[in-house]
Write a structure and sequence with these properties.
By secondary structure, the protein is an all-alpha fold. It is 79% helix and 0% strand. The protein contains 9 helices and no strands.
């Protein structure tokens, strides 16, 4: 916090406007949701008329998050290794991501679109893993994929793995 304030040449201004370092890193979690327009995209999931559309909306949401603020997420998660407040904020972000994956899986199940034998909890875990920052990071940085390439591949794999034949 001191380093950020010193760089901005405004220690008291930062503390007065944001509060503690913990408040600052938790504000990043809120900023991530705002910048990626998570609430509007999440509505598309719960209003989707088919399991495939719910899944596509969810994968698109994660693409938007990664494309717009993936670097912020990666930085926050990296900082969490050495900073307790960053770790707590990172865990909140991951909790939200897992919750979003559970919402997608639940909507797919409600629409009778999950493949036979796939439980909602299993579908949520698979969605959460394949739409994670780590997956996007690896596909983009190590293999040079575009965000569109990532979105198409993730949707295809999830669809093939989770969707009922008529989903």
């Amino acid at each position: 916090m001191t380093d950020i304030a010193r760089e901005a040449d405004a220690v008291q201004t930062i503390y007065a406007s944001v509060g503690s370092k913990r408040a600052l890193v938790f504000a990043l979690v809120e900023l991530i949701d705002e910048e990626a327009d998570v609430s509007a995209l999440a509505r598309r999931i719960v209003e989707a008329p088919s399991a495939h559309e719910a899944l596509a909306a969810g994968v698109h949401l994660t693409r938007q998050v990664q494309e717009r603020v993936g670097d912020v997420i990666a930085t926050l998660l990296s900082a969490g290794v050495v900073d307790e407040d960053a770790a707590a904020a990172g865990e909140e972000g991951l909790r939200r991501h897992r919750g979003g994956a559970a919402t997608i899986a639940q909507r797919m199940d409600t629409l009778a679109g999950l493949r036979d034998g796939v439980a909602v909890e299993e579908a949520a875990a698979i969605i959460s893993v394949l739409t994670s920052t780590a997956v996007y990071h690896q596909l983009r940085r190590e293999f040079g994929w575009s965000f569109g390439d990532c979105e198409r591949w993730i949707l295809t794999v999830l669809g093939d793995t989770l969707l009922a034949q008529d989903g």
